Amino acid sequence: MAPSKPQEDNRPQQAVRVADFLEKHPASTLKEIDAACDTGCISKVLSDMKRTDLYGMGYGLASDWRQVPCAGGTHVRKVRTYTLLHRPRAQPDLFTTA
Fold first, then answer.
1. What is the pLDDT of residues 49-58, one digit of tens each?
2. Dist CA 67 CA 29 (whole Å)
3. Dist. CA 27–CA 54, nearest whole Å
């Protein structure tokens, strides 16, 4: 079986996939999110998700740290985790056509 290619979609669609994953799996690492959501570059998606000036964005994300054993369990390293706080809110239509 050939390895799967990244899905051809835009950043808002990728953000929705990441948000759906983070709703079900809070405090996930970049590797966990990337493996599940297939976004291409997960760090760019997460940074764009926080931006309110991009259409379809404005997600609330919290970041924290998790300790992960490494070197056969002899050492511990910190890994950044992400949790979804809220999705973008729909803005009211200020200029209604009557």
1. 999 888 889 9
2. 11
3. 25
